[in-house]
Amino acid sequence: MDWGNVTAEDLVDALREVDWSSPPRPLSEFFSRFTVPRSYAKWNSRLKCNLYYYRTNYFILIVFILGLGFLRRPVAIVAAILTTLSIAFLNDSFAGTFSEKVTRTVRQFSPHLAAKMRPPLTPVIRGRPSAKRAVYVCGRPRGVFVLIFSSVSFILWYVSCGLLTVLWALAIGLLATILHASFRTPNLKARLNTFREEFRAVWRNYSEL
């Protein structure tokens, strides 16, 4: 896969649709080999490849740095968790997995309520969905949960006065992520992983025809 031809929009769409439940890469691999890219094209391709391949590691790194900044602000920790959830709900895989697990848990106590939490059926015309399948969480559109979690987290940020802290911690986390992704040399496993994800995307599009 030629990462130099992948746009930022394509990368964001791939990160939104990809499965984030995969475990992080081992630290021995994460801090294995670093080299300086020889050109802007090499740097651009390496940055996108590493951001996709080490996505779970970067997410944990940013959360860890944010946690260090909130040790003395418990309310800010809750606000950070809600903000993280509101962002995580934008990922199709996370939203579907979260909804499935909550529905399964509720079904053990109230099957009638769990039945109401099922997503509505997508109308099919001539064997194909009439539109792109919308993502539902616990029977409600995903945007409802994103709006609620974002609103509550904004109020908590305002009450805790920790917005400046999160901005500094987020800036440090993003800087560390960009530096690692820029100098970490992609290995053969990373390249094979991108080919596998590309094959899955092609197969998924083929199965929807």
UniProtKB/TrEMBL annotation:
Pfam families: PRA1. The keyword NADP does not apply. One of its GO terms (cellular component) is endoplasmic reticulum. Keywords: Membrane, Transmembrane, Transmembrane helix, Transport. The chain crosses the membrane at residues 52-71, 77-98, 143-160, 166-183. It comes from the Eukaryota. It is found in: Endomembrane system; Membrane. It is a multi-pass membrane protein. GO terms for biological process: vesicle-mediated transport. Its main location: membrane. InterPro entries: Prenylated_rab_accept_PRA1. May be involved in both secretory and endocytic intracellular trafficking in the endosomal/prevacuolar compartments. Belongs to the PRA1 family. This is PRA1 family protein. It comes from Rubroshorea leprosula.
